[in-house]
Amino acid sequence: MSEADAGDKAKPKKPTEQNLLFAFEEGLDTFEAKMQRMWEPYWNERKEVLKTIISLASGSVALAVTFSNNLLVANAEGTRPSAGWRFCLASALALFILTIILSIISLLCARELKATLIHFLKRRERIRATLSKVTPETLSEPLMPIVREVLDLTERNDKRAERFFQASLAAFTLALFLLVLFGFNRIGS
After folding, report:
1. Quick check: helix, strand or coil at residue 73?
2. What's the CA angle centered on 130, arms 129 and 133, to 5 degrees?
3. Is the dihedral of CA 143, 146, 151, 155 positive or negative?
4. pTM confidence score
5. What is the pLDDT along the chain (189 residues), one digit of tens a residue?
């Protein structure tokens, strides 16, 4: 074995851009699969709860609007609900509508959570440009700012979806409380 051959074997070869891109994409696939396995059960549960809330709030609005004439007329004793109780009913309807809107916004924000690979694909040119800076010693270091940027975007979308989810739960709970309160008032009077 010549001295030149021994020197070639001792030095690691600089990976080609195509090999690095392929390795990065394979790593992304693995990362995406792990992230989805870890968070998807929670994301799916939140989505199912939101769809249920939308259905219940829509049904409540439909029923309240359908029977609003019966709710606002005088009862058997001839008493009509006061302005305060009518406001209570109107507030409940407004909160049910707000619940629907907030739930839809939360679902739209959550849709972005499954788009991690798409966010990386949108940065493909930056990734290619960064691959020329990769050496065997600093394999992932140049790419980490791009990875952090995408992960931060995913985290922001998750937090946004969670805030709208919490707000829709609060609005739904308050609307339900006001509707039950109005119902008890009508039954009791």
Report:
1. coil
2. 115
3. positive
4. 0.74
5. 555 555 555 555 555 666 666 666 777 777 777 777 888 888 889 999 999 999 999 999 998 888 877 777 766 666 677 778 888 888 999 999 999 999 999 999 988 877 777 777 788 788 777 777 777 667 677 778 888 888 888 889 999 999 999 999 999 999 999 988 888 877 776
CA dist 147 and 178 (Å) reads 47
Domain coordinates in residue numbering, the chain: 16-73+80-188
Cβ(172)–Cβ(101) below 8 Å: no
Crossing angle of the two packed helices 124-131 and 17-66, in degrees rounded to 10: 160
- Fill in the DSSP letter of residue 80: P
Residue 126, classified by CB atoms within 10 Å of its CB into exposed (0-12), middle (13-18) or buried (19+), is: middle
CB atoms within 10 A of CB 19: 12
Cα 74 to Cα 70, 78, 79, 82: the distances in Å are: 8, 5, 5, 10
Q: Please, what's the largest Cα pairwise distance for the chain?
A: 110
